[in-house]
Specification:
globular; homodimer; disordered C terminus; four-stranded mixed β-sheet; seven-stranded mixed β-sheet; alpha+beta; Phosphoribosyl-aminoimidazole Synthetase, Chain A, domain 2; 60s Ribosomal Protein L30, Chain: A
């Protein structure tokens, strides 16, 4: 399932725990001067002299966050790393190191884990991040990936969720809803494959949304542009659960309200088309879909001209208000409806 | 199983992901000045100005690292945190923050997770560590706990595995083999309970080894004494896999050999008695048993007098040699046998 059957298969116990760690981590050169000691001691040693250290963890569980029937292991490794980097960019920081905890059953071969690590390695290369430690152990069921990312930012650069002020502009990078459409396409093809295993999956023409789902990127470029243009957002969060949920986080943490214009939500034409094919209102895919890993942020109105210079990558979708607890969606025909979070709730049994 | 049946049971989906995180993390005050921002943003923010940042991760998987039939959840939370702190002490540092990744199935109630977090909270109190972030998600099978610990040490204080020199004294804190004997007692009583569910477990008289297994402590006190006595070990590691495996790690990383005196290995009388009852050579429980979380370290011979001042807590068990690759065990009757690691290998199917 997770590999070509003709390929070599090496069982995990042929290497043992330390052999496996050596095998998986051998091709991870240290790229950051701050990574003083990587894999191979009780703890990694990092020098963030002059900077704040940022830390975030994500746990990915097979069958909950990914489905091995349609997730290539290399993509999975890449995505697991990148979604963590996204948390550091959302603080206006730079990811510098990761430690990886891996729980894996005997169902996986060494070659399969090599694929997973090839994806993690590519993400580390693309984002200039060092793998500096980890813990690899067995699991009685599926694959569990825990990635903790360490990042850094100058004290004065750190952006929290809590700094939005009334009248600040609410902005978002890129476009939204694509990752969720990609998931729906993959789920549909899986259902058809299970019903008829001889059928070939129909994935042509869906490249954009599939890439958004399977190989998302974190918005390193946006944070770099903030520095170039000397913009410091007043608050920021990355979009993992869906736009509505993230807007409500910013409002709650900042003690403000907001007016969000549904018609301003940026969406790719292919996302809109596929949503319609699934009979989903396209904006709902953006508001509730999740996993887009774009940056949602607020800036003072006086930064409007600078934000215009980022117009290719950033859209103003609303503004913050002094009405704490009141967050509203303004529809294209000027109806005002309360904004509600309907992001993923992994614990809700009714969704299973 | 994990709780009293008369107790209130709240299902996880009654709270939802964010409600659950709020519930579990509400009673974690921040104790360290370096913890600038804890739970509630995309990443925690830490100020380790003037210090090196140390990072380590451990992943604990139900059925592999713990057995819910005999592990109280509060103890499990305590141990999961403490074994991570131990990795930071093994670098001669001080743990300051943790982030907790939790994968949990619907089999667990909110009250059960409260118990787990009560253990994590107690460990944080006892070791003056802040919980600053986490990720809570569901799991299709058992409980998965991923703890990443962040610590700090002055640049000149960090002790690696790689600094041991020929003629350095090899020392260990506390006593060894107890945690493994505790595990054997628990496994025996579980087997008897499964054979006859009406039987009461016979755990009287085994308090010491059971506590070593279920509620280990990290040797914060030893690292504090090093500072008081102005001792800097040349190399150090904590004993998680068994003495033999850890000695070989120090030898390999430092490029030295060693002579380890079997008769010098410190063991509690109850460990020795129980080992004999199980027909196990007591020193083998220390060499291969694991999970004692004592500190194994080397010091220059000129520190011998200072080490004598720690004689109540520290035992000299051998010395390092220039014979790279040659690590030997000297038996009480002066036989010399090669030291071999037979610690746990979670991937070895023959042990299942």
């Amino acid at each position: 399932m997770e590999e070509n059957k003709d390929m070599v298969r090496t069982e995990l116990d042929e290497l043992g725990e330390f052999g496996l760690i050596d095998q998986l981590t051998q091709e991870f050169p240290l790229r950051n001067a701050s990574s003083l000691k990587g894999v191979g001691d009780d703890a990694a040693v990092i020098n963030h002299e002059g900077y704040r250290t940022l830390v975030s963890v994500d746990l990915l569980v097979e069958g909950i966050h990914f489905d091995m029937t349609y997730t290539p292991l290399k993509h999975l490794g890449y995505k697991a790393a990148v979604v963590n980097f996204s948390d550091i960019y959302a603080m206006n920081g730079t990811p510098t190191q990761i430690v990886v905890g891996l729980g894996v059953s005997n169902r996986y071969s060494v070659e399969a884990l090599d694929e997973l690590y090839a994806g993690i390695r590519l993400a580390c290369e693309n984002y200039h991040v060092d793998l500096v430690g980890g813990d690899t152990t067995s699991s009685q069921s599926g694959l569990v990936i825990s990635i903790t990312v360490i990042g850094m930012a100058k004290e004065e650069d750190v952006v929290y969720r809590s700094g939005a002020k009334p009248n600040d502009l609410l902005c978002v990078s890129g476009d939204l809803g694509g990752a969720y459409m990609g998931l729906l396409i993959l789920e549909r093809e899986k259902a058809e494959y299970l019903a008829n295993p001889n059928m070939q999956p129909q994935l042509q023409g869906f490249d954009y949304v599939l890439e958004r789902q399977l190989k998302p990127e974190a918005r390193k470029d946006i944070v770099a542009r903030f520095k170039e243009l000397d913009i410091k957002p007043t608050s920021m969060i990355d979009i993992s659960d869906g736009l509505a949920s993230e807007v409500l986080h910013l409002c709650k943490e900042s003690g403000v309200g907001c007016q969000l214009y549904e018609g301003k939500i940026p969406q790719d034409p292919s996302t809109v088309k596929i949503a319609k094919d699934f009979q989903i209102v396209p904006s709902v895919a953006a508001l509730s879909g999740g996993e887009d890993y774009e940056l949602l942020f607020t800036v003072d109105q006086k930064e409007y001209e600078k934000i215009q210079k980022m117009a290719e990558d950033v859209t103003v979708i609303g503004y913050m208000t002094a009405d704490k607890g009141i967050s509203e969606l303004i529809t294209p025909d000027n109806h005002v409806i309360p904004l509600k979070a309907q992001g993923w709730n992994h614990f809700d049994r009714s969704q299973k």
